Amino acid sequence: MDSVSSSAFLSTLSPKPSLLRHRPSSSRLLLRINSSVVENNGPPPSKPKKLYTTAVPSPAKLRPETNIVTALFTTVEDIINTFIDPPSRPSVDPKHVLSNNFAPVLDELPPTECDIIHGSLPPSLDGAYIRNGPNPQFLPRGPYHLFDGDGMLHAIRIRNGKATLCSRYVKTYKYNVENKNGAPLIPNVFSGFNGVPASLARGALTAFRVLAGQYNPVNGIGLANTSLAFFCNRLFALGESDLPYAVRLTDTGDIETIGRFDFGGKLAMSMTAHPKTDPQTGETFAFRYGPVPPFLTFFRFDPTGNKQRDVPVNSLTSPSLVHDFAITKRHAIFAEIQIVMRLVLEGGSPVGADNRKTPRLGVIPRYAGDDSEMKWFEVPGFNIIHAINAWDEDDGNTVVLIAPNVLSIEHAIERMDLVHSLVEKVKIDLVNGIVTRHPISARNLDFAVINPAFVGRRSRYVYAAIGDPMPKISGVVKLDVSKGDRDDCTVAARRMYGPGCYGGEPFFVARDPGDAEAEEDDGYVVTYVHDEEAGVSKFIVMDAKSPELEIVAAVRLPRRVPYGFHGLFVKESDISKL
């Protein structure tokens, strides 16, 4: 069967349609700031049970009074937003960016019981699924890009077949200092420097804010809004413009931010939001990149959390957006793509496409002491933002990479709805320098994952989100990358979420993580799904081995969960270590 009808999905998801589709209340809250309307969907009709009784202030409603300095600078910023750099493009216009379920929720949510509306939660899901994403603390008064929001974690804690949802901001330095001042202080990286006049104006305003003591950039300006990672017995909220932020889940299912983490002073400036942990050795590999040399730095952590020495990659001679990478048992693979970083005085956005540049793949031994063994291979037309997996073949002389290739890369930042990502299998002959490429599926796929136990070694199955178009995700598909190079590798029928329903990145959870003999796809695929017509969000669990990714459980969430970025599942045994 090549597809599953939307009506079948809805009937499977909820035996009582009224639980999924209800007419939004007329009391829905609308906030208007600078003509930007942001919708706050209220809770569903049934009153949820609160497991956390302490009142939590709403960051969108209970603001401290701003002082004279903050009020003055905010007025200057309003002048910049109105006369020098108004949000003139759709990609930075809050009315466009924050439409539908991209709109932020205006409150944090303490641990709140959820209703299971279909099936039952499998025993192997004891733990928590946590997803990160942008949720601006303050409604934008000027240009705003999807990547610019403060990080908010949405965690569904599952124990003994029951579920609770909690949504909390990552309490970054930026969040805390802006919350204290009652206004945004730190400029948005992706939307705040559009051309020379805007860059000069906002640069000057930023300098005056720092000189006035409103904030200290040395303490970090990151959002921690991109992903999460569990390694070295710690859970981190990540954003590549800053250090990791350690977080923890309490016994009640609440989320607490422990703080910015520099691994004993050994980690400087920033770290990727996509570190890779070798499940067999326990080591974690990571990197940072930036606009000044060295443009790329590779490093790793041993299983106990000790950071090893930096390996500057000096052979990367210009600043490029390096969002993700891949590892094998012997190598690390980096992509130099056509999205570059520019000086703000050059005009335009600080991040944009350079079609004159030829994309390259760099392969370096993962235990390299320096970059002398880095090998670069030109791969015209191959631009990847995310990597799915990689492994070695031919006794380490060939590297295989699975990744979505972003077609029309010039639209990746400004017009994501025009982007089509084609998953490809790339083979790099390290001896002869020959690179071969084969498409795996013609569908528009990204935000793809594998069984985490197979990171860095040959894997067979991929679970990828279907763009409709990106950044909206209308379903998930399962791929078998072991098929012939010229075969379409789709295995399962597309699990579509239904009309007006969109989800997030899927995540694979093994049925029995301790069973070394278990089949690779023996487990579940989980994600959040939102029904835009009914205003209802759900957590769904799909059987990864079933021919149609059968839904085995659906949980109705006590309130809307906005669309976001990356997440992971943390086992109960790992939560207890935090």
Automatic annotation (TrEMBL):
It comes from the Eukaryota. Its cofactor is Fe(2+). One of its GO terms (cellular component) is chloroplast stroma. GO terms for biological process: carotene catabolic process. InterPro entries: Carotenoid_Oase (IPR004294). Keywords: Dioxygenase, Iron, Metal-binding, Oxidoreductase. Binds 1 Fe(2+) ion per subunit. Fe cation binds at residues 274, 323, 386, 566. Belongs to the carotenoid oxygenase family. This is Probable carotenoid cleavage dioxygenase 4, chloroplastic. It comes from Raphanus sativus (Radish). The gene is LOC108818727.
